[in-house]
Amino acid sequence: MSRRRVLAVSASALILASIGVTTPAALADPVRPQVVNGRDPSPGEIRSLVSVSAGGYWCGGTLVDPLHVITAGHCSVNDNGSTFRPSQVTVRWGSSKYFDEQRTYAVAQVTTHPEYDRNTLDNDIAVLTLANPISGATSMAVASVAESQAVLTARNSVRSAGYGRLSFTGAGSDVLQVADLTVMSDSVCGSRNGSERIDGITFYGVDVDTAHFVCAIGVVPGTTRIIDTCQGDSGGPLFSNDATPRLVGVVSSGYGCAGVDDNGPMAEKTPGVYTRVSAYLPWLTSQGVDIGTAAPTPRIVSAVPGADSLLVVVTSDGNVNFDNYQIYVENTASAEDAWYCTVPKGEDSCLFDDLTPGAEYAVTVRYEGSEEVSEPTYVTISVVPSVTPPVRPEITKGWDMGGGKVKIKVRVGQQPESTKVWVRCTSKVKKANATVKNGRANLRLTPGAKYSCKAIAENVAGRAVSKVFRFRL
User: Fold this and answer.
1) Where are the domains of the chain?
2) What are phi and psi of 100, to 5 degrees?
3) To which H or E segment does residue 325 belong?
4) Which of the following CATH numbers is that of domain 299-380: 2.60.120.560, 2.60.40.3210, 2.60.40.10, 1.10.1240.10?
């Protein structure tokens, strides 16, 4: 892969190369937010896009309530990784046609996500608090978890927007451009080897954590011209394609622009990468952002029944301010037949046994101490014989990929159907889990620490754990 696009500096542009490597690249002119093969906006289509000037960098941003702008984390820090002072940041808003005619607004506070990682761009999100509201601007509502899940379904239409260059090395544009994009499946987005055809063009995955990122790309109808965001567009919005747009993503990174990089047309074309905003709703709320929706709850990923058991897998949807989950299983015909399980943060499943065969159970989950409970999932316990217990997996090798990225090779074995296999690595400073796909698990760990890793196979019949694999990163 060639250079990985992020933000650009007005005097001498800096563009991050492949994950964890920085490479200077000289650009003659300031780089503003930009869209390749976009279109002019319809009247009033987007009045929430702002331009962000931060310490000499240009980025985009989205006004989400009268005083708050959401932008990318890499747009809010300097070359040393320190968050810019408010006096170093200004926000511009105004005409959609002439960048230089936009009015300037002062920023009172700059907050970068506390777990933003400069090497991997994980948690690439920040909040700017304005000193005063922007008169005439229309805020874009932040999508709830449920809304985001619906909008970011594979093959759905979404949009982004920005100003500037119309190609990877082309001239800038003073006219706001809108990008009509298609959501790529998470399975391909999160893989380096997977591919997906969108409107007749094959696009390859970029190996990102799809709990925190989503991929999108577009094709001009009836052509082979690719629609994409590009350098300097960082921090701008990814939003739903409907009458009431909702913010679902933030422009983060990518390889090349619209299938073109330094070396010309790319042999393997890739999508743009966007921060998944729904993963950060609790943190955004803690920063005073008006989400306008109920507090997010964890959700049930799967609930797989056995003969007298139930394996429940849950996810936090990015909530970093909790200690444990609590999963509840209740017989819908008998309130006395009810069970619960407390799952520590860092784990994601619980196995319930001794349930009543043939009975229907309602499964819910909440954060411990919270009153907000997920929507119930209804499962009928099987009356067929039990599932075969899982086979013990084995960790055979590990690779240090640099920048805290680690790849673990796992011999999975012939596992029964509906068996989940994952790797758990722990140290004194970090705990991380990753699902095993194609015999490998990709984790992001803290360099310099000693880790103990186990491969775990689990289904409704039980759990099998590998021997411990130890290493220092």
Assistant:
1) 4-286, 299-380, 394-472
2) -70, -15
3) strand 324-331
4) 2.60.40.10
Q: pLDDT for 121-176, tens place per residue? A: 999 999 999 999 887 778 899 998 888 999 999 999 999 987 644 455 555 556 67
Cβ distance 121 to 148 under 8 Å?
A: no
Whether 59 contacts 234, CB under 8 Å: yes
Residue 73 phi, psi dihedral angles, 5° rounding: -60, -40
CB count in 10 Å sphere of residue 51: 24
Please give the Cα distance from 459 to 305 (Å, whole number). 9
Architecture of domain 4-286: Beta Barrel (2.40)
394-472 and 299-380 share a CATH fold: yes
Judge if pTM exceeds 0.85: no
pLDDT digits (tens, 9 = 90+) for 345-379: 777 888 898 888 888 999 988 887 776 777 788 88
Low-confidence ranges of the chain (pLDDT < 70): 1-45, 95-101, 163-175, 292-297, 316-323, 371, 383-386
Q: Where are the beta strands (DSSP E) in 141-271?
A: 141-142, 157-162, 177-183, 195-198, 201-204, 213-219, 226-229, 237-240, 246-255, 260-261, 264-265
Which CATH superfamily includes the segment(s) 394-472? Immunoglobulins (2.60.40.10)
